[in-house]
From TrEMBL:
Domain of life: Bacteria
Name used for this protein in its record: Uncharacterized protein
Lineage, highest ranks first: Bacteria, Bacillati, Bacillota, Clostridia, Eubacteriales
Amino acid sequence: MPRAFQCPYFRRASAPRRRVNCSCGALQFPSLQGYLEHTKTYCAANPGWENCTLAQALNEEEMRREAGEKLR
Ligand code: SF4
């Protein structure tokens, strides 16, 4: 059954290739189990995706960019 990805930074994923592509780049998992655990816990979880350290870094980057835009 395909996963419903929830993270707003998600772009695409391939379980056979054990890969997730999101705004931060491409994540290549060494095992299908690792891919499934990560995507279930973070990418396809709502709530849950906010706990991904990559999503947090992207959120912080967005907040910095917005703060910079307000200073102009
Ligand atoms: S949860 Fe993390 S790894 Fe998954 S799509 Fe979002 S930022 Fe990327």
